[in-house]
Design brief:
heterotrimer; A alpha+beta; B alpha/beta; C alpha+beta; A: alpha+beta; Uridine Diphospho-n-acetylenolpyruvylglucosamine Reductase, domain 2; Uridine Diphospho-n-acetylenolpyruvylglucosamine Reductase, domain 3; Alpha-Beta Plaits; 4 domains; 7-stranded antiparallel beta sheet; 5-stranded antiparallel beta sheet; about 35% helix; C: alpha+beta; Vanillyl-alcohol Oxidase, Chain A, domain 3; 8 helices; globular
Chain lengths: ~500, ~425, ~350
């Protein structure tokens, strides 16, 4: 069947060649969503640039034609960040996956945005180095996506988020101009501002980073991974409080609840977590051998005081990988419980964890949803996961209602609606729980400095003032998914 | 699209597609994604496409067909999927639906269909064809044809006539002096293995006999049907499966030495959907898994070599057989087994895939050969004919030819 | 010049709404000699906003007013076993708004990591906020990161949400004297690259030669073992944060890659103080020497600007990337369109 190729697509093909421009509408369905599958929208076209110059050429072309665009990494975002509106062109950066420079003296690497998080660590492993932020999707998610979302991961408690590991970026601004933010020597000179800090977490709305400078960390001398099953969630939380209160800073403090344990153990990621435990606590200590030995003794004592059912400690890398396997595969394993999954990402002050979990459980019960929890306990970053059948309008509505209430509880307790997944299109309705219209207006002004014409990933991260058709409001989204006429029309 | 009805997935297949939560962990394990970085060439992307097809959201099903055809069906994604999506089932159901509504057109497709059904699945014709190929190869005709683009460049070297003779059918008994075991084993000999890798079959027979097993080779067995299933013709595959079920009806254990065939034989329960199929699926074993479970009683002959074992997809992902071949090879005196990168990644052979999608298969094959060369081995071991041919070809293409052998060959005891 | 010192955020809002003309925001005023003069009509000091509004030892976070002296926060944190792991003195607002000095801790060497969020007031008196009070949040853009290095020219911060860390159980200072430039740079690089580097590290070059000074922190066993294993002599604490200019001289502040330090030191003369995070100060003999150094620095991947010297010359430095400069000007325009904060 012959298709008329519109002039824009023709120009894109002229820039990149036909194999790197996809515009056949049915093929574009493969890009219709990220890990937040409730919101689906097919882009206008997908292009796969390979160099900064190509990104610049594409962006200039789109900017001149006033066509919106969105950069995309591996599509593992959980908040709809890279999901493109119907008129939007996706710049899929998967082919920009070269590590450009590694400095062992100054401990940094310069990478293209499509470099997979774990591939960067693999590239420097033989030098005794690693890249610290480790989202659970690290085997597939990209450094460019991590930068856009300010991704976290289990090891944030000690090592910080992506923003603490990004030194600089070469950015193609939404009008096609280049800007070099920060650099290997630091994020800002004394007569500059912390532009990398501002850019990190801008969810693809400030421009497209094509070269990213990140810190590399020396591998610790020793790593100890301990697993403690508990008969009650409360005991696991109290152990965490005791550990942190004693001034021990573990590399990671993770808790999985019973429902999560059972889902994981039924999957290919089974790690041997005890099915009868109401919670398991995973503690990782790293550092000098004599230090981790002392800390491990303290941690074991705290766990025992709080009634740990048993203690498991990994003695080698393979054992450690096994203990972590279940945690890293937890999200995907939820797919076994129902057809759809809504992953929440609320944060509460750590001292309010117990209270938050109780209230979340009550909310789940009230709405009759299947809910389980896996979370970064050290950071108070909760991931309540609601499994539901997206084909059932009632179940979807209850899921959304429960999610809304859970995030409200997080904010009430002094926390945040998102710790590491971003606002994207998913939390546009929730961000008002944390910020006033004025706060959001200040953020919008800052965004306009980067993207005056509002072309770069429009309708994400900040709610737009006018009732723009592209703004994905929850009720409309649900209606779209369910194929019902939208409310109020 | 020129067809009477649009391809639509049945509700069961659609429901299976819903298990995917789009986590993306499958991407790095997918060979076609690794060489293209295209979402449409990834398991996650293909699932979205198949799902959209099932939901009637695809305007032009022909437009997305190439992406589904490009899949190697290597099942690496199933191994890594935390949600347990049965991707292979989904893909095969979709391909069958495409083939039903809109059979592939063109000379290549016609040739494939004709060859698979009228030649490959019929042993005498296949043998005649292979003899012809041997002549073409000897006379240089084949090289000429390849150069003219009339024949693929990846055609395997055809062994001489005496190596192409089939295994004698009927009962074989262990040689005198060998302690017999109480298990009688029936061998599945397949289609291309016989004429192209007859020496592997003979090695398998020899190893089984030397280890004290009685062996039968049923005369009425046929091709397993794998290639037909993969190209969307389960109906024809079913005919073959029924004949095989009948041919092996009296046997307790069916053993095979080609991972691709083994995987399909093990899925006869699903293909046939009846008790006979399920019974057959339960009694079949891969030869390495079988020997590992029973234990070797005859010490293999010494083999001084530094070797890499590469997992055939349909053995590791399809049958979950990973440790057994390695454990058996560890018993070969003198053999040093070394690890190489990504042993479970497909080599790009995938049945007749390398004949249909030469460019992708070549990129994937080169990747595989490069990792093997990097491991600096002088012998490569893998348990599937297609993989043996593909790896051999690409090692040659890189200028690093190495012997590529089936692991069972190394289990033959010293004479 | 009038100096006003509001005691509450509301008073500051009111004050700014009254459009007092050009305003210079100051904390305790200790860093004013490092900034260019801008001809302000009014000096507004935030030293009255000096409360510890919230201190949650269990969560290891706190909320403070920008006028709170660093020393007072340290005193409050000591009994609960916590600390703010970065260098710098004066008020906390001034510390973050000027050029805070990082600690070489696992969670990032940039003190901006400690700034979780803030409540601010724009030049027109509009109150707003960014970030959160918890240790992890990616809701909204991180506009609060712009406080760092803004020198009070973008907005006023009226509340800072800070991340705290457990105070180390033990610490030990060490000092190596009389090194030549090559040996000092090499030692500096090696110490900085340790899996657990010294919490503080300084390279100090003066007329007599180079010294390496630093501090290991952590468990007692570790700290003692480190000094012994690395053959580092124990020493008194080192507290010098900044260089003073020599008569007629100037001081440059900048950043440099550790691997370039030896070459840089060979190329530019003068007292030089380098920290583990790559921040340095260089004292030059006069304006000409400064200009010569500013021409040299980019060769070593270093960036710097004048912080001490003739008031009109302060703030001048190595050229910024054109795209970054465009963004800096845009941000100033966006947050303070009338140029109230000078």
């Amino acid at each position: 069947m012959l298709r008329r190729v519109p002039p824009l697509e023709r120009d894109l093909v002229r820039l990149l060649g036909a194999p790197r421009v996809l515009s056949q509408p049915d093929a574009l369905l493969a890009w219709e969503c990220d890990g937040f599958t409730v919101h689906r929208s097919r882009p206008r076209a997908v292009v796969l640039p390979e160099t900064t110059a190509e990104v610049q050429a594409v962006v200039r072309l789109l900017h001149a034609a006033r066509v919106p665009f969105v950069p995309r990494g591996a599509g593992t975002c959980l908040s709809g960040g890279p999901t493109a509106g119907g008129e939007t062109v996706v710049l899929d950066l998967a082919r920009m996956r070269r590590v450009l420079q590694i400095s062992t003296a100054d401990l940094f690497a310069v990478v293209q945005p499509g470099v997979v998080n774990l591939d960067l660590t693999a590239a420097v492993r033989h030098l005794g180095l690693h890249y610290a932020p480790d989202p659970s999707s690290q085997s597939v998610c990209t450094i460019g996506g991590n930068l856009a979302e300010n991704s976290g991961g289990p090891h944030c408690f000690k090592y910080g988020m992506t923003t603490d590991h990004v030194l600089g970026a070469l950015v193609v601004l939404p009008d096609g101009e280049l800007a070099r933010l920060g650099g290997p020597a630091g994020t800002r000179p004394p007569h500059g501002l912390d532009l990398p800090g501002l850019f990190c977490g801008s969810e693809g709305t400030f421009g497209i980073a094509t070269e990213i400078t990140v810190r590399l960390c020396r591998d610790p001398q020793s790593v100890r991974t301990l697993l403690f099953p508990f008969a009650a969630m409360r005991d696991a939380c109290r152990t965490v409080s005791d550990i942190v209160g004693a001034g021990v800073v573990p590399a990671a403090l993770e808790i999985l609840d019973q429902a999560t344990i059972r889902a994981v153990e039924a999957s290919v990621y089974r790690a041997g977590y005890p099915l009868e435990a109401k919670a398991v606590l995973l503690v990782e200590l790293d550092g000098p051998t004599e230090v981790t030995a002392e800390e491990a003794a303290e941690v074991r004592a705290f766990a025992q005081q709080n009634g740990a059912l048993r203690i498991e400690e990994a003695t080698d890398a393979a054992e450690r990988a096994r203990l972590w396997k279940g945690r890293k595969g937890a999200f995907g394993a939820m797919g076994r419980l129902a057809t759809d999954l809504y992953v929440l990402d609320g944060v509460v002050p750590r001292t309010r964890l117990e209270e938050a979990l109780e209230r979340i459980t009550a909310i789940g019960a009230r709405h009759g949803v299947v809910l389980n929890n896996v979370f970064h306990a050290g950071d108070g970053n909760l991931h309540p996961n609601i499994s539901f059948d997206g084909r059932d309008p009632d179940a979807t509505a209850r899921t959304i209602a429960a999610g809304h209430e859970i995030l409200r509880v997080c904010v009430e307790l002094g926390g945040s609606i998102t710790g590491e997944h971003g606002v994207g299109s998913e939390k546009l309705d929730h961000i008002g729980m944390m910020f006033t219209a004025t706060d959001l207006a200040v953020m919008a002004r800052v965004r306009a400095v980067f993207d005056r014409d509002g072309l770069c990933n429009p309708g994400k991260a900040l709610p737009q003032r006018a009732a723009c058709a592209e703004v994905a409001k929850w009720p409309q989204m649900v209606a779209r998914v369910l194929g019902e006429p939208e409310a109020g029309r | 699209m020129a067809c009477s009805s649009e391809p639509r997935l049945d509700p069961a297949a659609h429901a299976r597609s819903l298990d995917c939560v789009h986590c993306g962990l499958c991407l790095p394990t997918c060979p076609t994604w690794q060489v293209t970085q295209l979402e449409t060439e990834s398991p996650r992307g293909r699932i979205l496409l198949m799902r959209a097809l099932a939901e009637g959201r695809v305007a032009d099903p022909a437009a997305i067909r190439p992406f589904l055809d490009h899949c190697l069906d290597c099942r690496a994604c199933e191994t890594t999927c935390p949600s347990g999506v049965h991707y292979g089932e989904l893909l095969e159901a979709t391909r069958a639906e495409y083939e039903r509504c809109a059979p592939q057109r063109g000379v290549k497709a016609w040739l494939v269909r004709t060859l698979l059904w009228h030649v490959v699945a019929r042993q005498p014709r296949l043998r005649a064809a292979i003899a012809l190929l041997r002549h073409a190869e000897r006379s240089g005709l084949l090289r000429l044809a390849a150069r003219l683009g009339l024949a693929p460049r990846s055609v395997p070297r055809i062994p001489p006539r005496r190596d192409r003779r089939p295994l004698p059918t009927g009962l074989h008994l262990p040689p005198p002096g060998v302690r017999r075991r109480s298990v009688r084993v029936a061998l599945f000999t397949g289609c291309v293995m016989e004429p192209l890798f007859g020496h592997v079959h003979r090695a398998m027979l020899q190893v089984l006999l030397a280890n004290g097993f009685e062996v039968t080779v049923p005369a009425t067995q046929r091709c397993c049907g794998a290639l037909l299933v993969h190209s969307g013709r389960p109906d024809r595959a079913r005919q073959l499966a029924q004949q095989n079920v009948a041919a092996f009806a009296d046997c307790d254990v069916v053993v095979d030495d080609a991972a691709g065939c083994g995987c399909t034989l093990g899925e006869y329960d699903r293909l046939l959907g009846d008790d006979a199929g399920a019974q057959f699926a339960r009694k079949r074993r891969d030869v390495m898994a079988f020997l590992h479970a029973e234990g070797l009683s005859a010490t293999p002959a010494e083999c001084r070599a530094r070797a890499a074992y590469d997992d055939p997809c349909h053995l590791c992902h399809g049958q979950g057989v990973r440790l057994q071949p390695r454990a058996l090879l560890a018993q070969v005196p003198g053999l040093e087994l070394v690890a190489h990168a990504r042993p479970e990644e497909c080599c790009g052979s995938a049945g007749i895939y390398h004949l249909l999608h030469g460019e992708l298969a070549t990129a994937i094959g080169r990747r595989k050969a490069e990792t093997l060369v990097a491991a600096d081995v002088d012998l490569v071991l893998t348990g599937n004919p297609g993989c043996m041919i593909q790896i051999d070809n690409h090692l040659r293409a890189l200028g690093h030819p190495r012997p590529v052998r089936h692991p069972v060959e190394l289990l033959v005891p010293a004479p | 010049m009038t100096e006003l010192a509001p005691r509450t955020p509301a008073e500051l809002t009111e004050l700014l709404r009254a459009r007092p003309g050009r305003v210079r925001l100051v904390g305790g005023g200790s860093r004013q000699d490092r900034l260019p003069p801008r001809g302000a009509a009014v000096v507004v000091s935030l030293r009255g906003l000096d409360g510890i509004e919230r201190l949650e030892p269990g969560d290891q976070t706190c909320t403070v007013g920008p006028g709170l002296p660093r020393a007072e926060l340290d005193a409050a944190l000591h009994p609960v076993g916590l600390e703010l792991p970065c260098g710098g003195d004066g008020t906390l607002g001034g510390l973050f708004a000027h050029d805070p000095v990082g600690a070489m801790t696992a969670g990032g060497s940039s003190p901006r990591s400690l700034l979780l969020g803030l409540d601010g007031v724009l030049a027109d008196g509009t109150p707003w906020k960014s970030g959160a009070r918890v240790v992890k949040s990616v809701a909204g853009f991180d506009v609060h990161k712009l406080l760092v290095g803004s020198n009070g020219r973008l907005f006023a911060a009226v509340r800072l949400h800070l991340r705290l860390r457990p105070r180390p159980r033990a610490e030990a200072w060490f000092r190596l004297d009389g090194l030549d430039v090559g040996a000092a740079a090499e030692r500096f690089l090696a110490l900085r690259s340790l899996a657990v580097p010294p919490r503080e590290l300084h390279l100090d070059r003066d007329a007599r030669g180079c010294a390496i000074v630093g501090r290991f922190t952590g468990r007692a066993t570790f700290v003692c073992e480190r000094l012994r294993a690395l053959a580092l002599p124990e020493a008194r604490p080192f507290a010098q944060l900044h260089l003073e200019p020599t008569p007629g001289g100037e001081v440059l502040a900048g950043i440099v890659l550790a691997s370039q330090v030896a070459a840089l030191l060979a190329a530019v003369p003068g007292r030089f103080l380098l920290r583990g995070d790559g921040r340095f100060e260089l004292a030059t003999a006069d304006a000409d020497a400064t200009d010569a150094a500013l021409l040299q620095l980019p060769r070593f991947g270093a960036e710097a600007c004048i912080v001490r010297g003739a008031p009109a010359r302060r703030g001048h430095g190595t050229p910024l990337d054109a795209g970054a400069r465009r963004l800096l000007e845009g941000l100033r325009q966006a947050l303070d369109p009338d140029g109230v904060f000078v």
